[in-house]
């Protein structure tokens, strides 16, 4: 667990309604890349831990007989279920709970995926539990945006969202230390998943980077949704100053781009996989 921080149920409180609109999508083709890497054939079961509104699970569900999404935030699960119905995904189900609650009788899985969620868990405990839940040769998958991607080959046609200025505005309301639920994260979230997974007995590490780079328009409403989709600026953190913060945020965006339209390059997606040893 993160030093000096304890998980609580407000970590993403109020963020579910903003998540899909605010977050940039993963690179096109990430699901196909993972399916090819793991030889997925429509059989077996998928578990997405910390599934949020189901973005990754719904893209991967067609490669499995059943897909199970788990998240402690019931609003996220409700949004995931709504999206599954909208997209006609019928082999998914949703379970409320934390990674530390596993296995909770969920059975055996071919793949367990953590999409930018593993760092919020007691990683050694969770990795050991996932090892027991995977079928022999099954895969632990860590999926995220590629950190520090190479410079884009073409300039943006519009200004990028002013992320540093947005961060300064958040700090002016919430203080200089990053918020997370009812607590703060002084030293950031942890890394070195490779060491955690090695301690748990996983083998055969592979890394795949799915390129992206397409330019997407980002209206001011999308940027506001991005802010409220984050754990460190979730709506509940602002209390009775939420309306004031949103007013100031929109004024900042209007000042930077009077047309209230920005642009960004889609980041590459990094997929890291480890295997449970075969029987």
Automatic annotation (TrEMBL):
GO molecular function: methyltransferase activity
Alphabetized UniProt keyword annotations: Methyltransferase, Transferase
SUPFAM superfamilies: S-adenosyl-L-methionine-dependent methyltransferases
InterPro entries per record: Diverse_substrate_MTase (IPR051052), Methyltransf_25 (IPR041698), SAM-dependent_MTases_sf (IPR029063)
GO biological process, one term: methylation
The protein's name in its UniProt record: Methyltransferase family protein
Top-rank taxon, per record: Bacteria
Methyltransferase domain location: 47-138
One Pfam family it belongs to: Methyltransf_25
């Amino acid at each position: 667990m993160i030093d000096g921080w304890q998980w609580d149920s407000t970590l993403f409180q109020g963020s579910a309604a903003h998540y899909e609109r605010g977050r940039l999508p993963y690179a096109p083709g990430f699901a196909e890349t993972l399916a090819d890497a793991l030889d997925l054939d429509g059989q077996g079961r998928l578990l997405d831990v910390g599934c949020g509104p189901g973005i990754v699970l719904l893209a991967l569900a067609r490669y499995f007989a059943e897909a199970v999404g788990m998240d402690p935030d019931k609003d996220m699960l409700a949004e995931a279920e709504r999206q599954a119905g909208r997209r006609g995904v019928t082999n998914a189900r949703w379970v409320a709970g934390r990674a530390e609650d596993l296995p909770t009788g969920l059975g055996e899985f071919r793949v367990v995926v953590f999409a930018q969620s593993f760092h919020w868990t007691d990683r050694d405990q969770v990795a050991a539990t996932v090892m027991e839940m995977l079928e022999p040769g099954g895969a632990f998958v860590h999926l995220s945006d590629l950190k520090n991607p190479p410079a884009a080959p073409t300039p943006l046609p519009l200004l990028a969202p002013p992320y540093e200025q947005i961060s300064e505005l958040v700090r002016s309301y919430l203080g200089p230390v990053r918020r997370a639920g009812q607590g703060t994260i002084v030293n950031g979230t942890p890394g070195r998943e490779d060491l955690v997974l090695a301690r748990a007995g996983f083998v055969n590490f592979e890394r795949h980077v799915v390129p992206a780079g397409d330019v997407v328009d980002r209206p001011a409403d999308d940027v506001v949704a991005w802010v409220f989709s984050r754990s460190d600026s979730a709506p509940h953190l602002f209390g009775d100053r939420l309306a004031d913060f949103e007013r100031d945020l929109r004024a900042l965006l209007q000042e930077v781009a009077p047309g209230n339209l920005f642009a960004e390059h889609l980041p590459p997606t990094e997929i890291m996989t480890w295997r449970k040893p075969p029987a």
